[in-house]
Structure prediction request, 832 residues.
Amino acid sequence: MLSRNDCLQADQQDPLARFRQQFALPADTIYLDGNSLGVLPQGALARSQQVIAEQWGQGLIRSWNDAGWFELPARLGNKLAALLGAGADEVVVTDTTSLNLFKALAAALRIQQQAHPARRVIVSERDNFPTDLYMIQGMIDLLQQGYELRLTDEALPLEAALDDNVAVLLLSHVNYRTGAMYDMAATNALAHRHGALTIWDLAHAAGAVPLALNAADADFAVGCTYKYLNGGPGSPAFIWVAPRHQDRFWQPLSGWWGHARPFEMGSDYQPAGGIRRFLCGTQPIVSLALLECGLDIALQADMDAVRRKSLALTDLFIELVEQRCGEHPLTLITPRDHARRGSHVSYRHPHGFAVMQALIAAGVIGDYREPEVLRFGVTPLYLGYTDIWDAVDTLKRILDSGSWDAPQFHRRGAVT
Amino acid sequence: MLSRNDCLQADQQDPLARFRQQFALPADTIYLDGNSLGVLPQGALARSQQVIAEQWGQGLIRSWNDAGWFELPARLGNKLAALLGAGADEVVVTDTTSLNLFKALAAALRIQQQAHPARRVIVSERDNFPTDLYMIQGMIDLLQQGYELRLTDEALPLEAALDDNVAVLLLSHVNYRTGAMYDMAATNALAHRHGALTIWDLAHAAGAVPLALNAADADFAVGCTYKYLNGGPGSPAFIWVAPRHQDRFWQPLSGWWGHARPFEMGSDYQPAGGIRRFLCGTQPIVSLALLECGLDIALQADMDAVRRKSLALTDLFIELVEQRCGEHPLTLITPRDHARRGSHVSYRHPHGFAVMQALIAAGVIGDYREPEVLRFGVTPLYLGYTDIWDAVDTLKRILDSGSWDAPQFHRRGAVT
Prediction:
């Protein structure tokens, strides 16, 4: 049986423990929701003051050049590339994950249309994050060209869903609800054998698991920077395209930031070379600039060490729940296989919503996802082994006492 | 002949003079570029600290509910509505102007497609802001349904461009380069007589001129919040749809924020009622929240008084240039007619770029736009009559001395 002392010892030997001091964490809180909104880097407040008071307030319009605002999407994309297994000039940070999915999907469909015009099926997973499916549906509805969304599920596994009609396979690398992770290289190979291009949503993967987009032979990827990358609420998303597509892709959200010579103000769109053509309109500079604070911390860490600790912490969570909460109706829905697990752990519980509210009230912040899922995000840069012990201890106390079954824990807000 | 003393007297009698203290303006600068990037409201720095340190740092994920983050696009849209002549629940603040143009265009084309499927022409102005044209071109290329962009210019006036094939008329209310303004009500009536729907880009109009979207019978409008609304660099844009279209419009950038029940996480997109279906992905909260500081100042001002002062200041600018710089090759390209003038004044000069760099070096910040255009934005909330005098005085000095013709004023940056 594990003890809290074992966890204290593990924290003392943790080579990543020093990263915690780079974040401003609320007192008396164990934050297991970094997979939804990452925490505040210590440097972010000073950075915001610099951007707002100096660059905006004093520099004003000159800051587009002098403070490098116009270059931020490409400069931050180049920094982020190291965490994605991508190269220079392959990533930009811009817009939202949903919008970048639309751009990547349009680009992939156009490539296929030119080579294999009969391919009209887009494959995704029924359990994918909803916005991924909604954006595909919006595209299909807009195009009115006979495209079709085919969803994998228990009745239709991925292998059976891929055939010669498939243009694009669009998947989340790590599932937002279960934490299940695809083998990206194997999945790309499978898709390519069937002639499909792949688009990866890395929202729950970037900064959480080692990524090797080029080595895994992916085609397109998009993702989120406000989860494991600690970019701040709604910080802009990213998009990557494989070098082999860089010179031939096209995308329809062709705003002036993606123009080859935006300040010539010509009336015809001429796409910029390479990844910059994925840019569209003027970016929210304050939110964009703040992302660099979280990114710079992540770049100091050895991603393999982050992965080892992530697996150790999720293993610990699973083991402690088994040891200490075994009599309660918690069903683990996260894969036990390390190769198939991202960086969060999820359980179904018949009263998941109320249990999570009780946990939050007790200072253990995870989140709840329909249906009845308790979700616990594990972020190795600011969580320790003792945090996991204390979180499960609180969960045990709430379940043993039944304190979750109080009226205040059943009330739902706009965002649950 | 006007004197600087006349300007000092006008400032003393200016009922809007008190607004200047609500902004943090750089010393020794006359800022005539508020039509490109508005200035810093005094309250914005404290607001950013609240959002970053308290809401993000301490509230973390709870702030989506507790700090009202999720409601920001609709709540700020409702505030902004007063400046647009729009009603409650008709406006959301979200994404960028380019992206909102794409949404509005898709919505308008779909409405037309259902009623008048033969209409396949989109009319805009050759001299429109480029991103407006680029987004139309992207849409046409994406749809592959035989749509066509028809551009008005000297050879093809608007009246001649409208016929029974036109689905949508997309115009900027105030031209970004010349400052020329359309009569919105008359233009809507003209378009409607020809069966076309209208989309207005209000980037250079919102906060600068009185707007009455409903009274003028417009169909759709989008616009920018970082110019005359002082929202901060790249603060999110807005979109409005006329109440008569609210229950029937559709748009393809159908992300989860536009879903009727986003947190049920269903796999089928069901649009939210009304304007919220124009939302797509997670918004950049820090940049979005900061907009409220500028908005709150604008809402304190009487828009008719703002308009009177704007016209008085642009009249003054034009008059002083005539009186004092008459021997230099400056060609006014802004309409003298008040009814056709927005809130900036533009001149062509054969060496416009260098002249503007010399002005900026001397502390008079306007901007330059191809081809050879000097652009001077007039923002009545923080500019006075003496500022205009001093700006023209500096222009006169630079032109009289020829000091603009120095090597450093001919060098171009990435953003000119």
